[in-house]
Design a protein that fits this description.
It is built from 14 helices and 19 strands. It is of the alpha/beta class. It binds NADP nicotinamide-adenine-dinucleotide phosphate.
Length: about 425
């Protein structure tokens, strides 16, 4: 019975769904041994370091990941970095197929004056900071100001704005990184403006996220009724289903009775960012309005949430922030799935069918199996996190959270994670 070895690089949703698709394709005639390689000492990708901590339901998909990881033939190699610990060429030579599932981690830039000023950061830094990603634990977003502006009208912008505008005690029962809970507790920010360059009918928010906003108990959520009324006019009598559903959710928000909480989240539309200005740090954001005028918002923090690009990987061709591919095929025995393949769009579940399609191609391309090689003999790092090491980290974090009513307290430093793993 042929047994093929597949290396999956990246332990996020796309990587796990690729592994699951291979497991589902197994038969008496076809077996896979799957080695999942992850740069961090922890797996789960965006489920750990992207999903907003106040949306714990989305994270329950981690149970599916753990089931995949505990299926025969699956091995986790955490704390192993492609490029420095093992190269793509070595993987391609030793494995029957290699699947890139490294996502898109770099925040897109606006490319306007002042974007590099202190006080201007990307959601690609802020989100992993509050989620305890080891590479971002030293960041210190400026929360010592009254107003923050979030640029972008997608779900990431909304997550970021909510995290800034929530009453901090609402984060106590979440797995928000402890350093972020502390910083947000001391935050002076009381107003968060989410700014969209187009009208509400073009916003990339999804309606379940919009429908959650009126449930915020300690935050004023403000949308202008006139903005929504003109968007409804522009959308016409038969808008697409998603647009109709979004506009309905926004209409409800715009008609919310005024509340008088200390914290406010306010939406503005049809304002294109033109410049960030300030003396050595961000002090205001200048927008061009749809009428061609100028609008200025004074603020000390501006977070851009306008999409992501995939980081280039040595030996993997890329173009326009994605791995160059045709339906997931990159080259001989090299494939790509998830955001690195199709760009930063879609929810976690989108990766399931996407990865399954690519794994069907991979299986169709298989030739005779290569001789078996142990990945541990190919990698240079001594401290590899296996599934059982990860399970020790996971159990320790959950146990640390329990007395505090939290799902877990995340360890954020690499050394601490390795120690919890027993290394
Ligand atoms: P997104 O949904 O693509 O939204 C990006 C936003 O940035 C758009 O509103 C876009 O406006 C705006 N933008 C792009 N370039 C801009 C520029 N130069 N100036 C001003 N605005 C600009 O991306 P995302 O928010 O990063 O989310 C990525 C994916 O993850 C999405 O599919 C999202 O639904 C998903 N996600 C889901 C959840 C959830 O389910 N809870 C949470 C987070 C993320 P234009 O349309 O005008 O280009």
């Amino acid at each position: 019975m042929p047994q093929y070895k597949v290396a999956i690089v990246g332990a996020g949703p796309a990587g796990y769904f690729a592994a699951q698709a291979l497991q589902n394709l197994q038969s008496d005639e076809l077996k896979f041994s799957i080695d999942m390689i992850e740069r961090l000492p922890t797996p789960w990708g965006l489920v750990r370091s992207g999903v907003a901590p106040d949306h714990p339901k989305i994270k329950t998909v981690a149970k599916v990941f753990e089931k995949i990881a505990n299926t025969e033939g699956f091995n986790l190699y955490g704390n192993v970095e492609l490029g420095s610990d093992v190269t793509i060429d070595v993987l391609k030579a030793k494995y029957d197929a290699v699947v890139i599932a490294t996502g898109s981690a770099i925040g897109k830039k606006l490319g306007i004056p002042g974007e590099e000023l202190p006080g201007s950061i990307s959601a690609a830094e802020f989100v992993p900071w509050y989620n305890g990603h080891p590479d971002f634990s030293n960041h210190e977003p400026n929360l010592d100001c009254d107003t923050a502006v979030v640029i972008g009208a997608g779900n990431v912008a909304m997550d970021v704005a909510r995290m800034l505008a929530l009453e901090p005690s609402e984060l106590d029962a979440t797995d928000t990184a402890m350093h972020a809970i502390e910083a947000l507790r001391n935050s002076k920010i009381r107003k968060v403006v989410i700014s969209a360059r187009r009208g509400p009918e073009h916003a990339a928010f999804t309606s379940p996220e919009l429908r959650d906003l009126p449930k915020l108990e300690h935050t004023n959520v403000i949308m202008n009724q006139a903005d929504i009324a003109s968007a409804l006019d522009r959308a016409g009598a038969e808008p697409e289903k998603e647009v109709r559903s979004n506009l309905e959710a926004m209409r409800i928000i715009s008609e919310l009775l005024a509340s008088n909480h200390a914290r406010t989240m306010e939406f503005q539309f049809l304002c294109t960012p033109k410049e960030f200005r300030g003396n050595g740090k961000v002090e205001e954001v200048v927008f061009t309005t749809s009428e061609g005028g100028e609008k200025v918002i004074k603020c000390g923090l501006v977070i851009t949430a306008i999409g992501y690009e995939a980081a280039a990987l040595d030996g993997v061709p890329s173009e326009k922030g994605k791995v160059l591919n045709e339906d997931g095929r990159v080259g001989e025995n090299l494939y790509v799935v998830g955001w690195a393949k199709r760009g930063p769009s879609g929810v976690i579940g989108t990766n399931k069918s996407d990865a399954a399609d690519v794994m069907n191609l991979l299986v169709a391309d298989l030739k005779d199996p290569k001789p078996t090689t142990e990945l541990s003999s190919l990698i240079t790092t001594a401290k590899v996190i296996s599934q059982s090491h990860w399970e020790s980290i996971n159990a320790a974090e959950i146990a640390a959270g329990e007395p505090h009513g939290k799902p877990r307290i995340k360890a954020v430093l690499r050394e601490e994670l390795l120690r919890l793993g027993g290394l």
